[in-house]
């Protein structure tokens, strides 16, 4: 339920804090006092369309907060909040919305910033606002099938679960088949393309590491003369007469003789000796390399041609040999699926045909249960309408089936509520009913039935009793009170009969302070409440007669609520 509402700088409301209770709360007051402004604030908290025009003149921003307490642990709003990563503690859900003069609107749920779309989705599960000329959930034909299923209750849950399980398989396989049965020309083109690409890659006979080896070989071949000259010069410097080896050999002989005289020179002798033999081995190795060097221009062409092929393949299929080979494996699998698609497609089509049969069986079961529930709902609605002095009206739940082999998430049924408000008139879709008084009673009849099933924690009626009086007004008052037995109800009303049935009565006042108009709210009890009912009855000054009538209304209301309990 909506436990507490805080409004700051909204329209003519400077500051307002109000707590609500379970049951029926009625808001009354003079026309223009600001009753509907409070409902506007709640509607904005539920994700309604806002604008800077709502901000109180002279202020920078308006602040709205609504605290909801949800005692039912299975309420669907908990799953919705969890899906959006919003934590809930102590069953409390705090909606907050700040609107600035620059047009920006900031929404938070339990302190977490959310989009207006998320605020609207959560708000729709907490609040249902119905005004005289607004089409709410019950006035949306697409919702009628869900309301019928909610009315059917436990009887349809198992059948719905079975249907949903098969429908999930149906949608997945249907999408797969739609993809598989694409244009034959496109399939042929893809087969040709993949075949060409696969052949081009396979003919290249790629191996990982080959490109690096060829680049090294190319570098040697391109720099053959330079390499030969440097090796030859190095060899001559080491091995030619009068060069490195001769000089190091002479040093080795001299140090050998010196070390025989001075043993401390032995380490120097050994170092030079090691260098001599190392240089000697290096010279032999360089000679071998030089003798083996041979410039082959044809090999250079082969290497460069091969490397050019790699560049071409990388430009088409990947940035490296590894990526090209991965792409090759991918298109090989896709080509296999395309070439063998007819066989696979036939198997999938056989499987899909069986799922269709199973789905039709489950959809038929749903339809049978709906037809049964529809009869019970029609009877219940007619009973409610009779109590609201519309006993000559007719209500019908129209169930039609979609085209053959056409299913959606709810089965193959289309459901629409139809009504005829007068004898001799044809049944018309509920959404086409526009008479104010009749619409009010019809909505209350539906709310009385569905308030047990909708799961909405707070229902708000904004002057839905306009255009009625007398015994119809009393009947409407009792219906609103009956709805409040299953959901918290906030009701703006001009009818004293409705106000008398309230469990909580707030009086909205408008006054001028410091040359500014302000709205205030007062919880009225006892004599204050009698005075307000008297004002509603007289429409002007209260009299002893209207006060007495107000007391009688309160006594009658108390008696009727005891009978309902």
Distance N to C terminus:
20 Å
Mean pLDDT: 85
What are the segments in which pLDDT stays under 50 over at least 5 consecutive residues?
none
Largest sheet: 6 strands, antiparallel
**The level-1 CATH class of the domain at 1-126 and 457-523:** Alpha Beta
Protein described:
This protein is α/β, with parallel strands linked by helices. Among the domains are: 1-126 and 457-523, P-loop containing nucleotide triphosphate hydrolases (Rossmann fold); 189-339, no CATH class. The protein has 18 helices and 15 strands. The chain has helices at residues 35-45, 76-83, 116-124, 144-152, 154-180, 184-204, 210-222, 224-239, 244-261, 266-292, 297-317, 321-339, 341-387, 436-450, 470-483, 496-500, 526-538, 544-564, and strands at residues 2-10, 13-19, 24-29, 61-69, 92-100, 105-109, 112-114, 127-131, 394-401, 413-420, 428-429, 458-462, 488-492, 504-513, 516-523. The strands form 3 sheets. A 6-stranded antiparallel β-sheet has the order 2-1-4-5-6-7, covered by helices on one side. Helix 6 (184-204) packs antiparallel against helix 12 (321-339) and helix 8 packs antiparallel against helix 10. The protein is elongated, with a radius of gyration of 44 Å. The two termini are 20 Å apart. The relative contact order is 0.13. The mean pLDDT is 85.
């Amino acid at each position: 339920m909506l436990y507490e509402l805080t409004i700051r700088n909204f329209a003519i409301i400077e500051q307002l804090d109000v707590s609500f209770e379970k049951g029926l709360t009625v808001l009354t007051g003079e026309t223009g006092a600001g009753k509907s402004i409070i409902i506007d604030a709640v509607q904005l908290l539920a994700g309604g369309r806002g604008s800077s025009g709502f901000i109180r003149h002279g202020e920078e921003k308006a602040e709205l907060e609504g605290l909801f307490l949800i005692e039912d642990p299975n309420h669907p709003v908990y799953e919705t909040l969890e899906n959006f990563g919003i934590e809930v503690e102590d069953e409390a859900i705090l909606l907050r919305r700040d609107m600035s003069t620059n047009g920006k609107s900031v929404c938070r749920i339990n302190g977490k910033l959310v989009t207006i779309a998320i605020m609207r989705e959560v708000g729709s599960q907490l609040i249902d606002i119905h005004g005289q000329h607004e089409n709410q959930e019950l006035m949306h034909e697409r919702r009628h099938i869900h309301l019928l299923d909610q009315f059917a209750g436990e009887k349809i849950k198992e059948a719905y679960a079975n249907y949903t399980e098969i429908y999930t398989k149906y949608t997945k396989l249907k999408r797969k088949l739609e993809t598989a049965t694409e244009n034959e020309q496109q399939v042929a083109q893809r087969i040709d393309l993949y075949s060409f690409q696969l052949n081009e890659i396979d003919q290249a006979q790629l191996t990982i590491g080959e490109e690096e080896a060829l680049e090294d070989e190319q570098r040697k071949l391109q720099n053959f003369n330079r390499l030969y000259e440097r090796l030859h010069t190095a060899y001559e410097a080491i091995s030619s007469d009068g060069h490195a080896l001769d000089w190091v050999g002479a040093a080795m002989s001299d140090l050998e003789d010196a070390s025989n005289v001075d043993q401390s020179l032995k380490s120097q002798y050994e170092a030079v000796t090691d260098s001599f033999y190392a240089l000697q081995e290096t010279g032999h190795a360089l000679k071998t390399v030089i003798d083996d060097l041979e410039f082959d221009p044809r090999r250079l062409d082969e290497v460069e041609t091969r490397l050019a092929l790699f560049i071409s393949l990388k430009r088409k299929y990947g940035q490296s040999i590894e990526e090209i080979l991965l792409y090759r494996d991918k298109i090989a699998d896709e080509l296999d699926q395309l070439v063998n698609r007819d066989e696979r497609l036939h198997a999938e089509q056989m499987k899909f045909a069986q799922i269709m049969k199973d789905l039709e069986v489950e959809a038929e079961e749903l339809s049978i249960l709906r037809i049964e529930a529809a009869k019970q709902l029609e009877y219940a609605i007619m009973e409610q309408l009779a109590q609201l002095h519309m006993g000559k009206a007719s209500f019908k739940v129209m169930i039609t089936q979609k085209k053959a082999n056409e299913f959606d998430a709810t089965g193959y049924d289309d459901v629409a509520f139809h009504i005829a408000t007068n004898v001799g008139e044809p049944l018309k879709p509920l959404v086409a009913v526009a008479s104010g008084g009749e619409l009010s009673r019809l909505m209350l009849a539906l709310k009385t039935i569905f308030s047990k099933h909708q799961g909405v924690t707070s229902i708000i009626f904004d002057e839905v009793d306009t255009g009625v009086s007398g015994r119809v007004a009393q009947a409407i008052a009792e219906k609103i009170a009956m709805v409040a037995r299953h959901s918290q109800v906030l009701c703006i009303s001009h009818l004293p009969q409705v106000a008398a049935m309230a469990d909580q009565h707030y009086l909205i006042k408008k006054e001028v302070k410091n040359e500014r108009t302000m709205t205030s709210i007062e919880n009225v009890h006892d004599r204050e409440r009698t005075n307000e009912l008297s004002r509603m009855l007289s429409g002007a000054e209260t009299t002893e007669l209207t006060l007495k009538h107000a007391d009688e209304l309160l006594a009658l209301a108390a008696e009727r609520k005891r009978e309902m309990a």
